[in-house]
Each structure stands twice: as structure tokens, then as C-alpha cells.
Amino acid sequence: MRRVRDISLDLRPAMLDDLGLIAAMEWQAREYRIRTGVHCELSIELGDLMVDAERSTALFRIFQETLTNIARHSGARNIQLALEQDGDCVVLQVKDDGRGFNESKLLSPDSLGLLGMRERALLIGAGLEIRSRPREGTMVTVVLPGAAAESNGQQTRTTRRDHTNRR
Ligand SMILES: Nc1ncnc2c1ncn2[C@@H]1O[C@H](COP(=O)(O)OP(=O)(O)O)[C@@H](O)[C@H]1O
Ligand SMILES: [Mg+2]
Question: Which numeric CATH code is attached to 2-162?
């Protein structure tokens, strides 16, 4: 339990700084599997879209909170993570095959983690949807509109270094 709790404390801004969003998520997924034994399958295909530092940090934190919840509550064996382009939107989706929960929890003032995710999404102008049902797993989707297409055609993804140091 302590190790699970550490996941969100463990955020290394340096990791995002140095590697950018995609590599940081890959790293986190690997780390998570080692810690929890839960398999995390990644599908990352951002095309030419870039995500700036502030939004990368928010998406990464949301991802970490979903991982923490999955480890704590779901009993899932498998996670599917997708970070994909849909038009000019970046879509982050985290799906688990765990026990799910009743969606009435979404409205509960006790659900501070879920509320926090929603708030983070709101702050970067993204929409967040959580779908869950008892025994049918949980799916968290974040849709971030207005990501800029990369203009210079280079492969490098946005890292915090490319921008001012906003968090
Ligand atoms: N992936 C998940 N699988 C099963 N239940 C979940 C999942 N994510 C959240 N929950 C349920 O939603 C509740 C609220 O989550 P959250 O707001 O993060 O609070 P906390 O994790 O502190 O309990 C959890 O207590 C749990 O019952
Ligand atoms: Mg939580």
C-alpha cells in the first residue's frame, strides 16, 4: 500500500523535463508493472501533435492518479493506456479490467481523487469522462482540444525545456 501511495509522490518533474510526455508515460507504465504486477499495454500515437509543458504535467498527473486508483481499488490484471490524436485533440484513455464501481461515486464529495482529476482537466481546458460499472471495469478519458501541430516536422516531442517553466 505504501508503495502504491508513492506513485503520485514519485513524480519526477525532471522525467517530464528530460524525456517529454510520451517517454515519461512509458517509464511510469513500466515502473508500475514492476511495483504492482499489473500489466499495462500502451498504444501511443500522437502524430504531429504537441502538448505543452503545463498540459503535459496535468495529463501525466491524471494518468498517475488513475494508476493509483487501479492499484488500490480495482483488482485489475490489465490496463490499456492510449494516448492518441483525434483531429486536433489529444485523447488520453486509461481502461482497466477490474471490479469497477457505481458511478454515483463520481458525485460523492469523498471522491477527492476523482474530483482532483476533473479539476486538473478543467484547468487545461480538457474534458474528462469516467465510465465505470460494478464488475465491468473502469475507463477514464481525457480529451484535450487545440493541441498545436508540430511545425518543423521534427520527431522531438515537447518537453518543458521548450517552454517557459509553468506548472
Ligand atoms: N479504477 C477503479 N476501480 C475500482 N474502483 C475505483 C477505481 N477508481 C476509483 N474507484 C472508486 O472510486 C472511489 C473514489 O476514488 P478517489 O476519488 O480517487 O478516492 P480514493 O482513491 O482516495 O478512495 C474509490 O474509493 C473507489 O471506490
Ligand atoms: Mg484515488
Answer: 3.30.565.10
pTM: 0.85
* Cβ of residue 36 lying under 6 Å from some atom of ligand 1: no
How many angstroms does the Cα of residue 116 sit away from the middle of ligand 2? Answer: 9
pLDDT at 112 over 90: yes
Domain boundaries along the sequence of the chain: 2-162
Determine the atom of ligand 1 nearest the C-alpha atom of 68.
21
Q: If you write DSSP's letter for every residue of 8-63 in order, what string do you get?
A: HHT--HHHHHHHHHHHHHHHHHHHHHHHH--EEEEEEE-TTB---HHHHHHHHHHH
State the helix-helix crossing angle for 53-69 and 13-36, rounded to 10 degrees: 20
